[in-house]
Amino acid sequence: MTQRIAELRAEAEAAISAAAGSAELEQLRVRYLGRKAELPNILRAIATLPPEERGPTGKAANQVRQALEGLIAQRSEQLAGGELEQQLRRDVVDVTLPGAPPQPLGRLHLLTATRREIEDVFLGLGFRIAEGPEVETVYYNFDALNHAPTHPARDRQDTFYVTDDVVLRTHTSPMQIRAMEAQPPPLYLIIPGRVYRRDNDATHTPQFHQIEGLAVDEDITLADLKGTLLAFARAIFGSDREVRLRPHFFPFTEPSVEVDVSCFMAHDSHPPAQRCRVCKDTGWVEILGSGMVDPNVFSYVAEYGYDPEKIQGFAFGMGIERIAMLKHGVPDLRLLYDNDVRFLEQFG
Ligand code: PHE
């Protein structure tokens, strides 16, 4: 029996020393020391042996069991150490490598940024934002805005006609009518959007952007218009700007005015001998058209609660491209549409 025990020991020691991982080691522990393994069975059966064999067999078997337990514990530690080592090597981070460079995020197009900037100013003044169709009927684009049947803007040379009574809107003003049809006064709205005209040169593209403003309430006066536009001009062009109103004509406002903002170009930023490129030395820059809503326009929407005898309003319309170009000194409108990132990256 001690012979068999010695054989088991040799076999188990060889296998345990060769175990390649902790899982394999656990299998060996079960095989040699587990409940059904041979060595524990021998120990359990000691009592059935002849009395003179019990002492030496028990002693030998116990020694081997202890030896194997010790060997397994030792090998287990070795393996765990090796596995940790490997794990650490796999997970190693070279902190001396340069960090991942931030991915370029992109930015808003100058026109989008400018539109949002303008929207923010009017939102702050209590206006809401609305949008409307770019393909518009002649009724909303011209008729209900009090354009005479022979008004030159209706000409096919100036306006893109889709059919005889449908056009690509030439301005955002048709939304004045649609907005008033949609809800009764009071109304404080701005309407940004694309507009279309048959024009194409350094200062005109066939498609461009406007922001319309419309305020309708009781007791609205030209002073409200001027105060609103002064706040706008100061927010966009600087807190020491002034505005000036010049008489003008639009079919749908009466009186109509063109609005100038005092030149925001620093006087020492261009050579004294050269004319200021922003205001041509006049001190004023035109920024938009506006006026008091013509009572004739209200008569088109009188049935929606707009009685020309009871309410007044002001309206204005500005070109987003023009505001962006003035503010940032962009010399050619077409730069805004070339999509050259070297140009666009300078803004936003
Ligand atoms: N719609 C006019 C234009 O495009 C601008 C404008 C809007 C004028 C509102 C007066 C009132 O030129």
TrEMBL record:
Alphabetized UniProt keyword annotations: Aminoacyl-tRNA synthetase, ATP-binding, Cytoplasm, Ligase, Magnesium, Metal-binding, Nucleotide-binding, Protein biosynthesis
NCBIfam families recorded: pheS (TIGR00468)
GO CC terms in record: cytoplasm
Record keyword Transport present: no
Gene Ontology process terms (BP): phenylalanyl-tRNA aminoacylation
Similarity field: Belongs to the class-II aminoacyl-tRNA synthetase family. Phe-tRNA synthetase alpha subunit type 1 subfamily.
SUPFAM superfamilies reported for this sequence: Class II aaRS and biotin synthetases, tRNA-binding arm
Protein name: Phenylalanine--tRNA ligase alpha subunit
Start and end residues of each Aminoacyl-transfer RNA synthetases class-II family profile domain: 110-326
Cofactor field: Mg(2+)
EC number annotated for this UniProt entry: 6.1.1.20
Subunit record text: Tetramer of two alpha and two beta subunits.
Subcellular localization(s) per the UniProt record: Cytoplasm
